[in-house]
Amino acid sequence: MKIALLGYGKMGKEVEAASLLHNHEIVLIINSENIGQLSKQMLQQADVAIEFSSPENALINAKFCIDAGVPVVIGTTGWYDKLENLKTYTIEKNASVIYASNFSIGVNIFFLVNDLLAGLMAKQPYNAWLEETHHINKKDKPSGTAITLANDILKYNKKYDGWSLNEEPHKLPVYCERIDEVTGTHLVNYRSDDDTIEIMHHAFNRRGFARGAVTAAEWIVNHKGFFEFRDILKSEL
């Protein structure tokens, strides 16, 4: 499979390594220095594009791939306020898009566990909160993964009418820290007067994210539509 990398930071380099490990070929690398040279003809060398750029560029890059007729995997987070816009555009163009707040297989299993626990805890006398910790260069706060976890809790628990970075009435607290080179830690806690229940995922490195993105790329080249990675994994796990 021929792959175009849109974004060549730490994650882009991990995706490159994972792609080569799976015997795929990198035919195009786009970064902040050569983005202005990108053309549809260049992009069409690839069977699929994997996008790990920035929140500001994710939607632009995704639509460029759609217009070029190239399936795209979007690993960038922080742009989800435009999610419906891209979904509509994808369907109108009969294109192929798959996104995730986190492509790690372990995190996606964590999502399923969180969803199950959220349903069980919704009517119990527990207060919930989330905590996420990442490296100091991560721009979005909270992380896309934390937002996914929070939204799954809010889906069941009517005690909260939204999430907040601060402690506010009727809001699910999401605490964020940016420390050194922490790859990513996410914690969900339920506390009552009698006990506490806690689940956590801690990433040791970025390889798991990259492997998942390559798995998504291998899948999306044969499918039309707008997909979230974890929905596909449900049928595979």
Explain the layout of strands and helices.
Layout: E1 2-6, H1 10-21, E2 25-30, H2 40-43, E3 48-51, H3 58-68, E4 72-74, H4 83-92, E5 96-99, H5 105-121, E6 127-134, H6 144-156, E7 163-164, E8 172-178, E9 184-191, E10 196-203, H7 207-220, E11 225-228, H8 229-236
Helix pairs in contact: 1-7, 5-6, 5-8
Quick overview:
This protein is 38% helix and 25% strand. It is built from eight helices and eleven strands. The chain has helices at 10-21, 40-43, 58-68, 83-92, 105-121, 144-156, 207-220, 229-236; strands at 2-6, 25-30, 48-51, 72-74, 96-99, 127-134, 163-164, 172-178, 184-191, 196-203, 225-228.
Describe this structure in words.
The protein has eight helices and eleven strands. Helices cover 38% and strands 25% of the residues. It is elongated, with a radius of gyration of 18 Å. Helix 5 (105-121) runs parallel beside helix 6 (144-156). The chain has a six-stranded parallel β-sheet with strand order 2-1-3-4-5-11, with helices on both faces. By secondary structure, it is an alpha/beta fold. Strand 3, helix 3 and strand 4 form a beta-alpha-beta unit. It folds into two domains: 2-103 and 207-236, NAD(P)-binding Rossmann-like Domain (Rossmann fold, 3-Layer(aba) Sandwich), CATH 3.40.50; 105-203, 2-Layer Sandwich (Dihydrodipicolinate Reductase, domain 2), CATH 3.30.360.
